[in-house]
Structures are given as structure tokens and as C-alpha cells.
Amino acid sequence: MFEVYITKAGKYLPNKAVLNDDMESFLGLINQATSKARRIILRNNKIQSRYYALDHDGKSTHTNAELTKNAIQELFDENFSGDDVELISCGTSTPDIFLPSHAAMVHGLLKNKPVELNSSTGVCCAGMNSLKFGFLSIKAGNTNNAVCTGSERVSLWMIADKFEQEVLNLKSLEEQPIIAFKKDFLRWMLSDGAGAFLLENKPRGPISLKIEWMEGYSYAHELETCMYAGGEKQEDGSIKPWSDYNPDEWLNQSIFSIKQDVKLLDAYILEKGAQSMRDALAKNKVSSDEIDYFLPHVSSHYFVEGLHKSLAEKGMDIPREKWFMNLARVGNVGSASIYLALEELMNSGKLNKGDKVLLSVPESGRFSYSYAYLTVC
Description:
Blueprint: E1 5-12, E2 18-19, H1 23-27, H2 38-45, E3 49-50, H3 64-73, E4 87-92, H4 102-110, E5 116-120, H5 125-139, E6 145-152, H6 155-158, H7 164-172, H8 181-187, E7 193-200, E8 209-218, E9 227-228, E10 231-233, E11 239-241, H9 247-252, E12 259-260, H10 262-283, E13 293-296, H11 304-313, H12 327-330, H13 337-346, E14 356-363, E15 368-376
Helix pairs in contact: 3-4, 10-11
């Protein structure tokens, strides 16, 4: 078995940062009315700026594949080029198309050479799952290196035009033309961007991070779906898929919009997060006292104090000064968020050899959690 190191990190955030008061100028107004939920949601999530692959007319400036390619190109230098890549592993919640895979579309843009590909789907854990595929490939000696990514281009899913037909349908039924909170909520939470890691079987450069272990946990066997797209939740908690709806219903009910069951999120996201992290640390015989930097991906600052409390209650009281987060500056970029946070930490000058770093990524899709434990070398 080989050792595995993150030897370089890259990122790509499209266009200029979008401040809170400018969001609706990019995403548009639904039914020509300012969202009543927007200010409340922004006050709770404490996000101050984010990035959109959009222009001021709501038109696309980049595809997801282009965002990912741009992040990967940040990994290349005089010592490592696209022709040196052996594996490309890409994770995203928002691929540009259903088929071919996201990794294949990224590879098509890189135009380097034949490589092995992997595409990870899901929600926020998709980026960590793509990282784990690269980690295991190098660990087993299948490849000497891997490029792993997390990326999202969700803004095009949230522009007002995507909800116009549903609003018209509600009006025709003489109902209030107000988009359900489960859809409007996420318009003020999510943003675009991509991050990339270069993994190798030897350390390189001034800072490398040895991946000691990775763990993942799903609670789908006991909990129903919380965050979803391409379907609609039924009374019994099951999801009726888009393919079981008529094409006119896709528009009239905004079937392809991203939705979240906020009550379910509040009930379980912290409880299962603390439980899974306790199990991951115990399995690998790591005490929370050994962690020098804790990088939790949280969708909103609303959850930060609750997460701190939940972890402490299970014997993992990590002081807040050890937490490293950039949510307020770059927004919630889903599967890319953990890449963007670690890239910033790696380039901050704060890390010292021997420091231990824990990455923690929850996913509310059906409640999954991923962890990675790193040593600075």
C-alpha cells in the first residue's frame, strides 16, 4: 500500500463576488416581487458574498465542466502538466447534462491524453467521494497520481425564469403565485465554483498533506430524503421521479428545481453529524484533542453553534479557534466547498509540519457524512 499526499490545490470562482443586495439582480424576481424569505435566510447563514457563473442578464458565462477545467489548470506548472495526469475524478451535484458523465466532459475540455475517469454524484459529499476514489487508486498502486475535484454551477437552476411557468400555473388555478419555501430557501444559500486537488504518492513542494484516512457514513436506511431535485416528495416520504411526471408537469411544478425539507434538516443534520464523526474518530483511534485545524463544511452559520455543542456533548469539544471556515466569503458551493476551504488554508501560511487537519462534510440529501484526516508534511 502506498502513501497518498495532496501536493497542490487549485480553485476557480467565476466572475466578480456578488454581494447580498445584488443577488436578485442576477437571479431575477419571481412574479416581479422581492423574496420575503431572502433577508431572513441571509441573516441566518451570514454569507456576505458568493460567485455566480452568470452575467447581469442572467445568462451563463461558464458551464460546470468549464469551471472544473479552470480549477484543474491551476494545478499545472513546470513540474506537472496535463500530460502527467493518470486519473481524473470529479464530483458534483449539478452536472451540465445527464450523459455523458461530468468527468468525461471535463476531460474533453482538458484535451490532454487518455486517462481513467470517475464521476461521483450526490450532494455535498460528491466532492469527498471523488477524493476518496483518487485516494484509494493511489493507495492501491493503480495510479501514481490523481486529479480530484468538486464543483457546482447551481445558479442557472435558481434564476427566476425557471419558476415562471409554475407561477403562471398557480395564477390560472387562482392560487397565490408564491414559490414554496423549500424551493425559495435554497436560492439564497447556494453558489458556483470549483476546487481541485492533485494527489500523488510522494510529497512535493513546500506544503503537502498526507491523507491518513477517509471515512463515509450514510443514514438513508433510516431517514427519508431531505434535499432533492428532479422529483417531488410524496405524503409517505417517498420521491416520485421526474420520469413519472408528464412533460407539462415538469414546468408547472418546477420538478427540476432543488428543494430541501427544512424541518427534516433541523431535526437530524447535527445529530447524525456528531454521531458519524465520533464513530470515524473512534474507528481510527484519533482524539479530538489531536486536531489542529477543523474544517467543517456547513451550509449556514446558523448551524455552527449547534454543531459545536453537539460535538462537545459526544466528547469532541474542538475549540472554535481551531475551526477554519470561509463560508461568508465564498458562499455555500456544495461539493466544492471543502476544496475551497482547504485550498485557502494550504495557501494561508498558517500550517506547520506535523499539524493535523480534519475535513468534515455533511450532505442533507439523505443524510450522508464524509471525513478525511490529514497530516501536514
